[in-house]
Amino acid sequence: MRLSSSSTSRIRQRSVPSALALVALLLTPAAATAAPGDPGGHCAHLARVRVPGAERQQSACLDELTTAGTVASGHTDPADWAGLTPEGLAVPSGVPGIQIDGYFPDTSTTNTNHGWRHDAQFVIRLPDSWNGGLVVAGTPGNREQYANDRAIGDWVLSRGYAYAATDKGNTGPAFYRDGKAPGDAIAEWNDRLTQLTRAARATVTQRYRRPPSRTLVTGMSNGGYLVRWQLENHPELYDGGVDWEGTLWRSDGPTLLGFLPQALRHYPVYAAGGGGARQAREALHAAGFPAGSEFLWPYHYQVYWDLTQRIYREELDPGFDGAAEAGTPYCPTGTPACDTDYDYAARPDEVRQAVERIALTGRIGRPLITLQGTLDVLLPISQDSDVYARMVREAGRGRLYRYYRIEGGTHTDSLVDMFPDRLRPLTPCHRTAFTALESWLAAGHRPPPSRTVALPAGVDAATLLNHCSLEGRDSTRQPG
Fold this sequence. Notes:
Elements: H1 18-27, E1 56-62, H2 67-73, H3 78-81, E2 97-103, E3 121-127, E4 133-138, H4 149-158, E5 162-166, H5 184-208, E6 214-220, H6 222-233, E7 240-244, H7 256-272, H8 277-287, H9 297-316, H10 349-357, E8 368-373, H11 385-394, E9 401-406, H12 415-418, H13 427-443, E10 451-453, H14 461-466, E11 475-477
Parallel strand pairs: 4-5, 4-6, 6-7, 7-8, 8-9, 9-10
Antiparallel strand pairs: 1-2, 2-3, 3-5, 10-11
């Protein structure tokens, strides 16, 4: 559930540093030509392509649809994807085509991209050289529609896919203000991705004169939750999906409203040292934060745990702190209406009813691959994907499912740059899972059995940035 890179990132910086712009321009092809057999050539049918249901759209013919060119041309926002990928991740280039930016009718105004101050914004990219497929995505955390550009969009575009992404209908750390009832804002995320998928499929059909041969859904964190929900509730729209550490919502738990208060309660005692530190560490382990992840706790306490708890609790249980909005930051235990002392199990039934509105069931209707890092300390794996894998099996959908636990992976790939000797990036594992899904759908080649993918010994960080095998002697099979 990745949040904004910082609260100040909501203040949109539309200019690009000159050095970064120069590099991007050097990486942008001077001219773009259509591949043999493409329907109409470079940016064909640009004027006639309309996004069904859009209240506003603006189209552009670009020589480069990946961030190798869109940073300089102003067709992405680097602040949206800051901190989500390792610094050394390669940027593909050589993908000319059409980009459509726009928005669907909505009443909230948290997204300020393009100066529109209008939510339900989307981006659709249509490469000249098309492989016949469409990839759709919702954003992680509370970010806007360009958040997946580096981690997902660049790569799938370079493989020939059309690509579409939505801001989910509300953005920023005060997203909970959108809607009238608890859970409304999160429920809108699901509706907006459904809306975008239908519109993008029609848009692709207009541009290429035939519908997509396959539609795949993918996303990380909150975006991974959307993948799960879509394949449970609208399998007719998709051929399959890849869930990258999706957030788990269940009315009877576990949810982040259960384990994050424990982190807020016990971490300060652990960090202070002294006689209570050992017991506090054991309490954090018992709450789901894995042994061996202690080196990540200070960062997550400072950046993620407190804010995540307060804003999602405000969305689903606004009555806990009365008229206050999202509680009191970093309040010590014993403070009135303090999220450190939040007890989900003791809250009124209407809180669980709010969670039930957005809950997952495990009843997927299309092939799904889930991956999550074993050192995830925002959404601990034992409280998230381990549970969701069990839900899928218990729902009788195991034949449609694969689950890979990536040893040494954590929730935010940029942390690999801080701890290159302790962590591995999940981006290459997502790409391996995606290609495994392609083979599963196209040729019936079932992916390797669900397993824990061991961190290879003696492999340098550069290799791990570009390689992730889901099979081999260093892996342990898991049920799934």
